[in-house]
Structures are given as structure tokens and as C-alpha cells.
Model the fold of this input.
Amino acid sequence: MPNTPPPFTDATASNHALRAFLHGLPGVDAVGLEARAAALGTRSIKTTAKAYAIDLAISMIDLTTLEGADTPGKVRSLGAKAVHPDPTDRETPRTAALCVYPDMVATAKAAVAGSGVKVASVATAFPAGRAALDVKLADVQDAVEAGADEVDMVIDRGAFLSGRYLKVYEEIRAVKEACGAARLKVIFETGELSTYDNIRRASWLGMIAGADFIKTSTGKVGVNATPANTLLMLQAVRDFREQTGVQIGVKPAGGIRTSKDAVKFLVLVNETAGQDWLDNHWFRFGASSLLNDLLMQRQKLATGRYSGPDYVTVD
Done:
């Protein structure tokens, strides 16, 4: 099993101790949090900074297909786009990763081989997470054995919301061990956690259990990534590093569709966690439709003309 950071060994000794720790975290000032997120969202950037931000955002995307109708051909096509997002401009950055279901990992690996693009796989009975632990671990094992570099797991929201925090903690630790060398992203499904206090508690629970990334959402529910819930998670990783020296990544997912949205999130990262997180090793966007808008805005900056959606591939 992965080690729990020393400051939290006592806190994870029992469900009672873990509940006391999580409920002892400072309460979230919802009005202040949303006002701060909104204020940061009004920041404007100059043209040269915008060009940098667009390229940075492209490099942070986990290009994703998670549909029941996924085919090897679709995954290969998306893999080609991950490696060369704009075939007319080979200076365009590659995306960070290609994210698929476990049964498509081998196809994805072949599609991006030699490019540096990572292959991520959702697992643990994504998106609902309603399965026994042995089934979830088998899901992870299938993905890792097929070559996944990263695993995106979902927590048991039912266990979390009913206060069975130790069950969630132990499940994350078991999944982390099953990941081996693969990095683990822990998805909270913030839209189902209902309160900012719960999102803060889930963030700390995920981090002390061994998450390499904490992630807002699956993209499969009505409320996904928002500036406010992402800001809250950025505060958590910043504070966690101050206490432990361990840096954890953040991945907002779902609902981020435009370059303007992406720039707002990058401002949140810079102003909250700091420049150390402005790198795709520590920050990702779970948003495939975002890439097309970033490419169109990039083309506009380069040519002075808005080329329109017909000049980018339809995924």
C-alpha cells in the first residue's frame, strides 16, 4: 500500500478520526469563494500573453472519448488529433493525453506511440462507480496492463455522502496500489457533492489517500467544472503542499468549451496555486470540444482571420 503522509497517520486510523479531521477543516465562505472566482474571471490579457495561454491550454488537454459507440477507428482518429491538433501547423502543441475506456487503451497507445502524448483510462466502474472493489480493481488492472500511463477513478459518492470516509480512503489507496507506475486522478463528481464544504473534504481525503491529481467531474452529470469549485481545489493543493511538501495536480472536467473559459481557468491557477502548476504535469483540462475553439483562436491570432469550425476536425 502507498504510504499516508506522516501528518495524517492518526487522522486515518479510524472512520471516527477521519471524520473528525475532515469536518475540522475550515468551512468554506461560499459568497467569498464565488466572488473571488468571478473577479479573477474578469482579468484581461494582452495579445502576446493570449497566444502563450492558448498554446499552454492546448498542451493541457486530455482529449477524451468516453461513449458506448466508441470504435477503434474513432480512437485512432482522435489519437492523430492529439499528436497533431492542427495538421496545417506542426508548431501547434500536442495535447497532454488521450483518455479512453480500458478496452481502448491498447488502440490509443498505438495511435500516439512515440509522440509523448500520454494515454489515460477511466476505471473503477466509471462514471457511477457502483461496483464491488474487486471489480473496480480488475478494471484498473486491465487498463494498466494494456499500457495506460494514467488512471482516472471515480470515488464512491454514496459512501462519501453517508459519512463512510474511511471506505472511500481505503478504496483510493487500493486503486493507487493497483496503478503501479501509472498516475492516479481521483474524480469527485463535484456536482453530486452538493456543498463546497464537501468538495474541500473530498479534496483533502483524495490527497491524503494518494491521489496524483484531484479532478472535478466525469462530464456525465449536469454540473461539472466551475471556476468556484476549481478555485477551491486549487486552494486545497496549495495548502497541502505547504503542509507536506507534496505537489498534487488539478483537473477540471466538463463544461469548459471556449478559449475564453480556458484562459479564466489558467488565471485561477496562476493566482491561487502559483506558476508551479502552470504545466501539464500538474494541470489538465478534461474537455475535448475546447480544443477546436483553441485551434480556431490560434489560427485567428496567426492570420488575422477567423477561419471558422469547418477548418478543424469534427470529433
